[in-house]
């Protein structure tokens, strides 16, 4: 596992499939120790682990350069319409060539602040038993933040991520109904993440994102790696 600072690109596009497989392996190792966990909320945690692992395994890992993330964020809608996030689809995995800012989520890293090196997401619905994966009538997008640092708040042994380039340092929900605006970076260090997701959603819906080789954004039968090649610069 690397622990480098700075804003240079970490990995080449060809490495995204390996990173995906390593990440899925980390979730699998956590699931293997879950039967030893007892108490309130254990069932919910197990369900969410299964959901994010399935999302990572089934998603096409998508690589974004630093320039592309800047262009997409610049086109993030304000406010966002309900369909802007829904256009992302039920699952996804993004790997960034350069970190998308830093976050205190999970108090990762030696100073409690970690670079955001990727994102994974899955759609969920809320019912009487909690939050569960649902790609038919979802209420939420559950977003997992991935970093090359380890999470200080993790209940798991660091060994579960020993073979993974990036680790899961925490998650947060985004509503799929109603309008909302991305928060200000001054009050929420996850603002760049939310802006990027909203920008991709609107870009997909409007056909303003181009993928290397002309591949589509949503193709359930294709989970091979891809690259967002260009962003049409016209404002959304």
Task: Report on this structure.
The protein has 5 helices and 10 strands; from the N terminus they run H-H-E-H-H-E-E-E-E-E-E-E-H-E-E. It is α+β, with helices and mostly antiparallel strands and 236 residues long. A hairpin with a 2-residue loop joins strand 5 and strand 6 (130-133).
Helix content: 25-40%
Q: State the major sheet.
A: 8 strands, mixed
Average pLDDT for all residues: 87
Write the element-wise H/E pattern from the N-terminal end onward: HHEHHEEEEEEEHEE
Number of helix segments? 5
Content-based structural category: alpha+beta
Strand content: 15-25%
Q: Stretches where pLDDT falls below 50 for ≥5 residues? A: 1-7
Topology at a glance:
Blueprint: H1 16-33, H2 42-58, E1 61-64, H3 66-74, H4 82-86, E2 91-96, E3 102-103, E4 114-115, E5 118-127, E6 130-133, E7 140-147, E8 167-175, H5 191-206, E9 209-211, E10 226-231
Parallel strand pairs: 1-2, 1-10
Antiparallel strand pairs: 2-5, 3-4, 5-6, 5-7, 7-8, 9-10
Helix pairs in contact: 1-2, 3-5
Give short descriptive properties of this protein.
single chain, 236 residues, alpha+beta, 8-stranded mixed sheet, two-stranded antiparallel ribbon, 5 helices, 28% helix, globular, disordered N terminus
Produce a short descriptive summary.
It is built from five helices and ten strands; from the N terminus they run H-H-E-H-H-E-E-E-E-E-E-E-H-E-E. Strands 1, 2, 5, 6, 7, 8, 9 and 10 form an eight-stranded mixed sheet that branches. The protein has a two-stranded antiparallel sheet with strand order 3-4. A hairpin with a 2-residue loop joins strand 5 and strand 6.
């Amino acid at each position: 596992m690397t622990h480098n600072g700075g804003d240079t690109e970490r990995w080449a596009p060809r490495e995204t499939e390996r990173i995906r497989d390593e990440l899925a392996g980390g979730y699998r190792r956590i699931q293997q120790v879950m039967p030893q966990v007892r108490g309130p909320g254990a069932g919910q945690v197990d369900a969410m682990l299964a959901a994010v692992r399935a999302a990572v395994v089934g998603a096409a890992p998508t690589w974004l350069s630093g320039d592309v993330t800047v262009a997409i964020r610049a086109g993030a809608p304000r406010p966002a319409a309900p369909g802007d996030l829904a256009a992302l689809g039920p699952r996804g995995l993004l790997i960034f060539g350069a970190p998308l800012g830093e976050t205190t989520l999970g108090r990762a890293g030696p100073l409690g602040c970690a670079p955001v090196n990727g994102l994974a997401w899955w759609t969920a619905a809320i019912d009487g038993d909690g939050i569960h994966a649902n790609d038919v009538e979802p209420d939420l997008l559950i977003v997992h933040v991935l970093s090359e640092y380890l999470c200080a708040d993790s209940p798991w042994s660091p060994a579960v991520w020993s073979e993974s380039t990036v680790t899961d340092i925490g998650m947060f929900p985004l509503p799929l109904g109603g309008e909302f605006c991305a928060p200000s970076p001054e009050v929420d260090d996850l603002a760049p993440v939310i802006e990027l997701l909203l920008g991709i959603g609107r870009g997909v819906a409007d056909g303003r994102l181009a993928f290397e080789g002309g591949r589509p954004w949503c193709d359930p039968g294709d989970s091979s790696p891809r690259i967002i090649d260009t962003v049409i610069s016209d404002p959304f």
